[in-house]
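One-letter codes give the sequence; each number marks local geometry. A record appears below:


***
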Amino acid sequence: MKVVTLAAFAAVAALSIAAKADGDDDFFAQLVGENDAASAPAAETPAAGSEAPADAAAAGADAASSPAPENSPFGEEMRNDLKEVLGEKFEEAAVAAGEENKRLYFVIPECSLIENGKAEVLLPGAKEWQEMKELSHYPLGSFFRTVGRNTKLTMTFGLGVTVKIIGEASFGTLAQPLGVKSRTVVLSSGVITVSVPSTMPRGLFVVSAPGFKAVNLTGVSRYSYKMLGDGDEATIRCVTGFMDIEGRHFRAEKVKTASVVRIRTSLDCLLTSIFGIRGDVDVRLDQGRFVVKDLESGEDKVEDRYLDWKLSPETAVRIYRAVPSIGANMSVSILTFNESGHMKNRCAFTEGRFEINTGELGPTSKKDREELARKAAQATETVTVEMAAPAAAPAAQPAEAAPAAESAPAVAPDAGNADIDDLGL
């Protein structure tokens, strides 16, 4: 029975592939069980600041949560067997049919909750803040803030994607054209908490600040942001799940649960300081470009080189940048410091130029330090040169005996000269 069934499915698979080749997506969409709601006419998008009807919101939630296979005329069993027959082709066709590409976000964010105070919004292009209302929608490019120490605000971007504020804080959203799937939150002040599903695809939700971006989020993360006299400071806490933190000349991958990192950036973005607060975070630092010889071809090739640094509590990284007076490429110096504040690594390079790169400027291990000390001792050794003895003077002619001269008193050594000799001068 199984063989006959798979043979029938193979025929259906051939028809589906042919339909895909002819550009007929409806056949395969129906076959894999694409939700009928996806092919229904799109609901009218609410205007900025307008309230969404409760019935429409409930219907949208039901449509989004209903599993696609329920609408498949072929049933779940046939769908699973079709996966066996098509293999990778099934996944590709399913993506094309829209099953694996469900909508992650609402078209525009929704104000889901306001408690114990009021919240305000600055719409794109507006000059004045206006009061927000629950269940209202606001376009991307808006900025939001709370008024009052006990105010709570929740903005919902999609199913399971929220940004929450408790207390006085503010954040914004990045304006994006229709069709762009990602969303970006811009830090402004105070503390915000971001929640995304653990199944969030990589790169589709970003938390941004002038000196860094938090990307590839899963779970819950919290951000404390404030302006300083000479720049800004952000404290990033991974509450649950994972995240990546990236900035110019550095990247921290797979920041784990309970890890805390603090990043300071100068106003001109020429200085970035990264501090470990809690947990161990692996940070990859740029070390510029180098010329290396290919062992197979024997030809020189240019490749980027990196330094992997473990950012533990009380350790730090400093990245200095400078705009050169000649040329357009920025010069960069990167230094790492251990818990005691001692510098462990140092390198300097010019962006994109392998000709200008110091490489590692300091020893990184005890063995390297001993080797450096040995070479320094060899370079400073005193070399003794034996001078040739002067030629013997000719023998003097004997002379008449002279009366014995009175012996001169011995001269005592000069104390000042002795001090100079002790200094080696």
Observations:
- The radius of gyration is 37 Å.
- Residues 2-97 form one domain.
- DSSP finds eight helices and 21 strands in the chain.
